[in-house]
Amino acid sequence: xxxxxxxxxxxxxxxxxxxxxxxxxxxxxxxxxxxxxxxxxxxxxxxxxxxxxxxxxxxxxxxxxxxxxxxxxxxxxxxxxxxxxxxxxxxxxxxxxxxxxxxxxxxxxxxxxxxxxxxxxxxxxxxxxxxxxxxxxxxxxxxxxxxxxxxxxxxxxxxxxxxxxxxxxxxxxxxxx
Length: 177
Prior knowledge:
- The protein has two domains: 3-85, no CATH class; 94-172, Winged helix-like DNA-binding domain superfamily/Winged helix DNA-binding domain (Arc Repressor Mutant, subunit A, Orthogonal Bundle).
- Helix content is 70%, strand content 3%.
- The chain has helices spanning 3-26, 29-44, 53-85, 94-109, 113-124, 129-136, 140-154, and strands at residues 158-160, 170-172.
- Helix 5 crosses helix 6.
- The longest helix has 33 residues, at 53-85.
């Protein structure tokens, strides 16, 4: 039998049995479907000679079993190592980051152009005051004044975070309506 004929026959006649077997191993429909598909791809990625459909189904079933056992072992290894690899820091949700980014963009847009440039170069590009002064062709005193004015204007949009001493984070004030 050709591989194409065997695959078509597997989908037509054996898919329910293979899916039920995979479901018994995994315990979820989506996981079972994925496991069956992975097994079929792995089985038919190499050319083999199939005597009949039963032999192909048995081979796919064995592949399902082996893929599942490999996944269980891999997960056990990761679970054992994860506490050593994981950090204790809390990562904010993407929604918070997007809201913060939008609020920062609005706040920066409210600044005068030279003040905004000084703030961006100093805090976003992490340049020193001397480097900002050189880039803006201004004196260091002028740049310090721009930074001071910028922080004062930005404080109208933001309030300091609770742990401001440890990190340079800000919490966006609740939206004004």
